[in-house]
Amino acid sequence: MKIAVYSPYLDTFGGGEKYMMTIAETFSRDHNVEVLLDRHLLNFGGEYLKNELSKRFSLNLQKVSFIEAPVGRGAAILDRSFFLKKYDAFFYLTDGSIFYPTAGKNILHIQSPLVGQPAQSLWGKLKLKGWDLIIYNSGFTKEHSVKNWPLRSEIIYPPVDTDIIKPLEKKKYILSVGRFTPVKKQADLIEAFKSLLNEYSVDGWSLHLAGSAGKGDMDYSDELRDLAQGLPVKFYPNMDYKGLVKLYGQSSIYWHAAGFGEIDPTKMEHFGISTVEAMAGGCVPVVIGKGGQLEIIEDQISGYLWNTIDECKELTAEVISDERLRSRLSENAVSRSKKFNKDKFIENILRISHLTK
């Protein structure tokens, strides 16, 4: 069978891209899989994207072809329509824009809340009829999208490499992973850590911030470094996956604050891949109780959820001071992370797509 996969954001190397490329990897074992490149993505080159995605996400994309295609902004409707007809299945990560697809089976992936999108218009409803299924990355994303996207849907949590990430000898590290951008609230975490050091007995502990940082993120990254001056805070921009896996294994506590102070669901964590990765590494998650985090953490069993910075500090101090509690929560976090492993993702993708050799 011939299968096409299209994500307009391959060059951002985020969670949605890992999701889509894992789909490509899965089907490439038995089928002919092509990743479609629009005009923007062609500027990076198919080989570069293939190699970088393989390396960053520890994927085997050797049998996947990256090809130029009439998709994305500026693509002619007729060209796209004729082009997609040759595929037995088509997977598309949408940002809210849709078109009428012509492959044998057409599956949309929505990874962030889409509110008031064009699927509600007459033309939008017509285009939506061409799609067979929507797959959401979390119940949170579905809850904030389904009203405007009235189509049969499934929730399939993202694939997490829980078999690769293992607990190592633990250090006094508090870790947070996320792109260096204001929406991830690293500035709030640095301020929280500064207060934690002043208000509680946490000698020897340090804060470690890892994540991708593109050219447009450098100003914010510099601001964070200025804010952290004089504090035991380390930065790891664009760390390779092997290094990140090691950092997960060494860290004791995981912080996440995306959505803090926000009421807009699009600014909250839509799922929380890095949270699950940290749990697989034995980190105790102490994360904000918003967005997809609520579907990951069993509060007080496999981690803690907080709503205010004061709660974050108090819960963190409790975990630091009680080694027995930290050990129990860590073991439970590792166990919980297995619910979101890559094998389960593959099983669910194959189930909903009904694609056989």
UniProtKB/TrEMBL annotation:
<dbReference type="InterPro" id="IPR038013">
    <property type="entry name" value="ALG11"/>
</dbReference>
<protein>
    <recommendedName>
        <fullName>Glycosyl transferase family 1 domain-containing protein</fullName>
    </recommendedName>
</protein>
<dbReference type="GO" id="GO:0004377">
    <property type="term" value="F:GDP-Man:Man(3)GlcNAc(2)-PP-Dol alpha-1,2-mannosyltransferase activity"/>
</dbReference>
<dbReference type="Pfam" id="PF00534">
    <property type="entry name" value="Glycos_transf_1"/>
</dbReference>
<dbReference type="GO" id="GO:0006487">
    <property type="term" value="P:protein N-linked glycosylation"/>
</dbReference>
<feature type="domain" description="Glycosyl transferase family 1">
    <location>
        <begin position="168"/>
        <end position="333"/>
    </location>
</feature>
<dbReference type="GO" id="GO:0016020">
    <property type="term" value="C:membrane"/>
</dbReference>
<dbReference type="InterPro" id="IPR001296">
    <property type="entry name" value="Glyco_trans_1"/>
</dbReference>
